[in-house]
Amino acid sequence: MADDTIHAAGCVLWRRSPVGGELEICLVHRPKYDDWSHPKGKLKRGEDPLAGAIREVAEETGYVAVPGAALPTLRYLVGGRLKEVRYWAAEATDGVFRPNREVDRIMWLSPTNARRCLTHPPDRTLVNALLSTLHTA
């Protein structure tokens, strides 16, 4: 039987606040689903997952992401098919957000507020994983 898993990748995008230097996490709003999530998307055929994650961050947020540690992979069902999303921590460098068809808004939030705003509970575990990797770095 052929593997019909949907392969995707994304990042928990973070920065230091330009105002006070506190850690901020970027969440994206997808109007199609009316949800708040980490930037992510389906991989192109043959695309390296990390390259796909960085591409998706750029497409959805307008920011250049410098990848860091691998974070947990999330797996869940979508329309009866398994979806596997690989994640990395990534620091945002240069960039400017411009609303687009897939993402109409972004927010930079403290980890506590990011956890509260994320629509899907499994996405909240990625905030904890990011904090663990940054504190041990």
Question: What does this molecule look like?
Answer:
- There is one protein chain.
- With 137 residues, the protein is an alpha+beta fold.
- The chain has one domain (6-136): Nucleoside Triphosphate Pyrophosphohydrolase (Alpha-Beta Complex), CATH 3.90.79.10.
- It is built from three helices and seven strands; from the N terminus they run E-E-E-E-H-E-E-E-H-H.
- The protein has helices at 49-61, 111-117, 121-136; strands at 6-16, 23-30, 35-37, 40-42, 63-78, 81-95, 105-109.
- Strands 1, 2, 3, 4, 5, 6 and 7 form a seven-stranded mixed β-sheet that branches.
- Helix 2 runs antiparallel to helix 3 (121-136).
- The longest helix is centred in the C-terminal third of the chain and has 16 residues, at 121-136.
- It is globular, with a radius of gyration of 14 Å.
- The mean pLDDT is 95.
Structural class: alpha+beta
Query: What's the average pLDDT?
Result: 95
Write out the CATH superfamily name. Nucleoside Triphosphate Pyrophosphohydrolase
Q: Report the uncertain regions.
A: none
Helix content: 25-40%
Would you report the number of β strands? 7
CATH architecture classification: Alpha-Beta Complex
In the CATH hierarchy, the third-tier topology is known as Nucleoside Triphosphate Pyrophosphohydrolase
What is the level 1 CATH name? Alpha Beta
Q: Note the beta-strand portion.
A: 35-45%
Q: Could you tell me how far the N terminus lies from the C terminus, measured between alpha carbons in angstroms?
A: 42 Å
How many structural domains are formed by the residues? 1
Shape: globular
**Whole-angstrom Rg:** 14 Å
